[in-house]
Amino acid sequence: MAAPPSLGCTPPAPGEASGLPDSGYVQEVVDGDTVRLKGGLQVRLVGIQAPKLSLGRSGFVDWPLGEESKRALEALTLHKTVSLFPGETPIDRNQRLLAQVHVVSDKTKENVWVQGEMIGDGLARVYTWKDNRFCAGALYQRERPAREARRGIWALDYYAIRSDDAIAAGDIDTFQLVEGKVRAVAQKNGRVYLNFGADWKTDFTASVSPDDRKLFDAAHFDFAALEGRQVRIRGWLESYNGPMMALTHPEQLEVLRP
User: Fold this and answer.
1) What is the mean pLDDT of the chain?
2) Are residues 135 and 202 in the same domain?
3) Which structural domain range is residue 198 located in?
4) Does 68 share its domain with 93?
């Protein structure tokens, strides 16, 4: 299989190098970030999160633009053979292959990075995990102009970036992007806290556990330097002394300006 052209992100290795499939024929598109190959294997497009569909799950409601995202992925991949580049952790708990996906364009005959296209068209957000964060920088480069142009999901309040002082009760237990100024950086028992408000018991806070600090330390991350800086972080919001977001890897945090 030929290597993909430079797309701002070179996958670590095709599947064949790890005993995993390096290509497959897309028989079905499940939603905007998941496809099913001929033979039944599901592939989750690693590094992105598209609007979700209920898919028959009880109590689950379709997210806005879920169908549009699915149709866009169908246009890119359905009934085509795709190249598969597994992530750092290649199989998830649902036995799906986690991979960067590439396909040859019907029109230009050039290699197309599917994740990059979905992000660039505003039909997905960058969504990384500490054990799957390859290509995050290149995906952020695709996301930024889509967000600024208010393409796709970025035109809707549902996906709007939250301000640190305007997080609603309905945002808890959801994946969000939050922006604000870090007022203070504190450490206790090896855990780092980024406090965005005057009262850490009620205002928005981000935290890094002692175990997760290892990835930040490996990246020579200076938490103290964040004090007074405007940042954007992304992850799942929970409620613990006010809104809280756990940071598990450096790619979740972007420093915006002094």
Assistant:
1) 91
2) no
3) 161-257
4) yes
CA 237 from chain centre, in angstroms, equals 14
224 and 190 in a single domain? The answer is yes
Closest Cα to residue 237, out of 229, 228, 245, 248? 245
139 — alpha (psi -120 to 50), left (phi > 0) or beta?
alpha
Domain co-membership, 149 together with 174 = no
Q: Assign 20 a pLDDT band (cuts: 50, 70, 90).
A: confident
* Mean pLDDT, residues 141-163 taken together: 97
Place of tokens 């969000």: 176
DSSP string, 71-110: HHHHHHHTTSEEEEEEEEEEE-TT-PEEEEEEEE-TTT--
Task: Judge contact between 202 and 161, C-beta under 8 A.
Answer: no
Whether 165 and 223 map to the same domain: the answer is yes
pTM: 0.90
